[in-house]
Amino acid sequence: MPVAVGYGDPKSVVPRDMTVAMTVKKGTGKKDIKLTIPNQDITPQKEAALKKQLNTGLKAAGCPTA
Fold it and tell me: Is the CB of residue 16 less than 8 Å from the CB of residue 7?
């Protein structure tokens, strides 16, 4: 599961965001999921969108409990 950290400014030591890429496998199902998570407070709507994106990917891979 690779994690990439993005910086808004090359001189900054504070990350702007991080991107998590994963491959979910269950049985014959397989799905690549990539989430970019900002390094800041997020709105409830943005949090819900990230959760929905993750759960959609898990369900596409055959995970019934997502």
Answer: yes
Tokens encoding 20 = 């998590």
Query: What's the rounded Cα separation, in Å, for the pair 57 and 62?
Result: 9
Residue 65 and residue 62: Cα distance in Å, rounded? 9
Residues with Cβ within 8 Å of 25's Cβ and at least 6 positions away in sequence, in order, are 61
Mean pLDDT of 36-43: 93
Spatial separation of the C-alpha atoms in residues 55 and 11, rounded to whole Å: 35
pTM: 0.76
In the structure encoding, which two tokens stand for residue 12, read together? 């900054």
Measured at the alpha carbon of residue 13, what is the angle toward residues 12 and 17, in degrees to the nearest 5? 85
